[in-house]
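A further point concerns the way the authors explain their paired sequence and structure data. The central task, working out the structure tokens from the amino acid sequence alone, is never made concrete. I therefore recommend that a typical entry be quoted early in the introduction. An entry of this sort, consisting of the sequence and the corresponding backbone structure tokens, reads as follows:
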Amino acid sequence: MRQFTFTLVCSSALAWASVASAADDIRLGGTGGALGTMRLLADAYEKFDRGAKLSVLPSLGSGGGIKALLAGAIEIAVSSRALQDAERSQGAMALEYARTPFVFATAAATKVTGINITDLAGIYSGKIRNWPDGTRIWLVMRPERDSDSALIRNISAEVRAALAKARERPGLFFAVTDQECAMVLEKHPGSFGPSTLGQILAEKRKLKALRINDVEPSARALAAGRYPYYKSLFIVTTSKTPQAARRFIAFVQSKAGQDILGQTGHVVPPFGPTAHAPR
């Protein structure tokens, strides 16, 4: 059923992209967490190059975006994971254009500002089910093969074991996309789940990114190596990527593009000392 659903979603997205191509020169899609910032970059680029037209598709996921790129349905894919060997063998090429703090977020009204790693393991394992003020913790999970789950597993052996235990707990909500996760987190007081600073800022989400071990999850802390948890973001192309798309990628790497990335919680190359990316 999971494979059927994935195929159906990708097929629908490819069909949507084919229709959109009649009016748009550059079609971009992929991981949901990058789309808010990409829309801001696209808007700025269209003002810079009046002849350019960009269409940012709804979330396809990293794998779905790369699949659409290789099928010729879009010109640029964005991914939150490195390329797989099979994707490289089909001609995909990746450029890491930014990193953003990987965070644990809650609804803005929740009366908590931070956790430590022991708390994190306790929340996932079910040992901790309420915030200090008594509010129930409304835990939002992500699919096992999602990049967010890979990042969580990589935090520590204790957290890895707790996440595995959480998957056996009945009644937990699983968000399929980054946007669905953010919407559910906003909706429920006491919520708890993964996100990125980049998505929260670019989409203007009513979410609070929690401090971890008393370190604020800011782009500055990430760049300095004080905050060790981050998500890498990649632009994926092929040798067939048209010049119009390559000009937009050059804009993303320009000072104007990097200013937008900086304003939305991203660190741009060259990257400083950081620690926890997916393995």
